[in-house]
Design brief:
Layout lengths: L25 E10 L13 E7 L4 E6 L3 E10 L2 E12 L9 E9 L10 E8 L2 E5 L5 E4 L4 H4 L11 E6 L5 E5 L10 E6 L4 E5 L6 E8 L5 E7 L8 E7 L12 E3 L12 E8 L2 E6 L9 E9 L2
Antiparallel strand pairs: 1-20, 2-3, 3-4, 4-5, 6-7, 7-8, 8-9, 10-11, 11-12, 12-13, 14-15, 15-16, 16-17, 18-19, 19-20
Keywords: Plasmid, Signal
Organism: Aminobacter aminovorans
Pfam families: Phytase-like
Length: 308
């Protein structure tokens, strides 16, 4: 699911990557997992979760589903464990939007950690549109963000199922987004993150094929934590690959290095992960995208610590 944002597109010839490698300086610990509740208090089914956002001011976890439902949860973390995950309410995001804007995939929170309550806004990336819209937590649409010409054109994407997938508000980088797969004009073994101000940063995929960028989340010191979903072959199990991207590593043509994080012996990341959010400090929460038939989604708590 490809992302598009205001960015000056580089020609394909400029995107030949030298595949720089970031020195391994981050430590990943997979701490805990918990299944999502099956239903909200009003009976709304909770499944196909594709984006997460933590609102520190309201102490609420938001999760958006593929069908455009925004779920609110009370979340409690204690001693490196998910102590409580309680659904609060679920609201649709459809009101006031064009009918062709569907398939919510990415989620980010604005004003969620400014010490004020009542001013939260959410950014939701929609694969079909493609589009990114701002919302209030009650589901009220506030308007669309303007996308760059190259990314606003659905014909530029590699396929219909590979449009907008992730969105993040990343400090000095501003609002950023990225395609799930490379655009038709770009090498297929690259990912590119786009900024609203026209900047863009490219890096090699985790593996040459079947390596889809699913989520972006800000980290300390301007870095970004990424999820790539990989499969060894078509139909094989999905694996959530956590990677650290640092724009300060970017060289010629903004080709950048990434660090691959090692989950150790844990198998909890062997699943279809699509959502990611930071909880403060070195804690991050991931969620799987599961249909009702496949069973409940899984929330997984991890720690990512920088070694230097």
């Amino acid at each position: 699911m490809i992302k598009h944002f205001t960015a000056a597109l580089l020609g394909a010839s400029a995107l030949v990557l030298a595949a720089p490698v970031m020195a391994g300086s981050s430590e990943l610990a997979v701490l805990d997992s918990r299944p999502a509740p099956a239903t909200a208090p009003d009976g709304q089914s909770i499944n196909e979760l594709s984006g997460l956002a933590w609102d520190a001011d309201e102490k609420l976890l938001y999760a958006v589903s593929d069908d455009g439902v925004l779920h609110h949860f009370r979340l409690e973390i204690a001693d490196g464990r998910i102590a409580n995950l309680e659904p609060v309410q679920s609201v649709p995001l459809r009101a006031g939007m064009a009918p062709q804007v569907v398939n919510a995939e990415g989620l980010a929170v604005s004003n969620g950690n400014n010490g004020k309550q009542g001013d939260t806004q959410l950014l939701v990336a929609f694969e079909d549109g493609p589009a990114i819209h701002r919302f209030k937590p009650d589901g009220t649409v506030l308007g669309a963000l303007q996308l760059p010409e190259a990314l606003a054109d659905a014909a530029k994407y590699s396929e219909a199922n590979s449009r907008l997938e992730a969105v993040a508000i990343a400090g000095s980088l501003g609002v950023v987004t990225a395609p799930e797969e490379a655009l038709l004009s770009e090498p297929g073994d690259t990912h590119t993150i786009h900024g609203l101000d026209g900047r863009r940063w490219s890096f090699a995929t985790f593996q040459p094929k079947r390596s889809n960028l699913k989520a972006i989340e800000p980290m300390p010191e301007g870095r970004l934590l990424l999820i790539e979903r990989t499969r060894q072959q078509k139909g094989a199990p999905s694996i959530g690959r956590l990677r650290v991207f640092d724009p300060n590593t970017c060289g010629e043509a903004n080709v950048c290095a990434v660090e691959n994080l090692d989950p150790g012996v844990s198998q909890l990341l062997t699943d279809n992960f699509e959502g990611l959010t930071g909880l403060g400090g070195d804690l991050y929460l991931l969620v799987t995208d599961k249909t009702k038939k496949e069973g409940p989604a899984s929330f997984v708590l991890v720690s990512v610590k920088s070694g230097a």
